[in-house]
Design goal:
single chain, four-stranded mixed beta sheet, 7 helices, alpha/beta, Rossmann fold, three-stranded parallel beta sheet, 9 strands
Length: 192
């Protein structure tokens, strides 16, 4: 089963994923392939680190369901890994994804008759004062903060218009309360 997490910058997606991985025994990251170097914040099993040449070959042969390019780094998730996760009824796989990719994932799950094995959480924040506080805490500059607040509003609108059946979590809460809300939803999930 797959539980995707998404939301605008600063809402705590990665923090929630890390906390879920620590809190539940049968939860793993859904592996992505990347050309970037490992980071200390990466979870074990979250990424396979590959060369640009290997990535290009995997892309050329159609192994990825989706790809993303951020600056010079490339990311992709293999169809085979998605199929394995959708068919595994004992483990919950968690990717952090953008809305467009989550839409594609839902379309793919429907095409292979696995919609019941896919759930998506959207972490929403609308409180501008809270956003300003979080971005200041991160050390963002004022002009970056204003751009990110606008981005949050855009993300919220995109999520509502996406047609994805999101489970909405409220980021204004304390991190432990967001985790508790997510855990309550997870314990209620069933594979159809």
């Amino acid at each position: 089963m797959i539980l995707s997490l998404t939301g605008p910058s600063g809402v705590g997606k990665t923090t929630l994923m890390h906390n879920l991985l620590k809190s539940l025994p049968d939860v793993k990251p859904l592996i992505s392939y990347t050309t970037r170097a490992p980071r200390d914040s990466d979870e074990p099993g979250e990424y396979a680190y590959i060369s640009q040449e290997v990535f290009d070959e995997m892309s050329k042969t159609g192994e990825f369901l989706w790809e993303a390019h951020a600056y010079v780094n490339h990311y992709g998730t293999r169809k085979a890994d998605i199929d394995m996760a959708l068919n595994d009824n004992t483990t919950l796989y968690i990717p952090v994804l953008v809305i467009e990719v989550i839409k594609k994932l839902h379309e793919y799950a429907a095409s292979v008759d696995k919609t019941g094995a896919l759930h998506s959480m959207y972490i929403r924040i609308e409180n501008e004062a809270e956003l300003r506080s979080r971005f200041a805490e991160r050390g963002d500059k004022p002009e970056e903060t204003e751009a990110r607040i606008k981005e949050c509003k855009d993300w919220n609108e995109k999520a509502l218009a996406s047609g994805v059946p999101f489970i909405y979590l409220e980021a204004q809460k304390k991190r432990e309360d967001i985790l508790a809300d997510a855990l309550a939803h997870i314990h209620g999930l069933k594979v159809a």
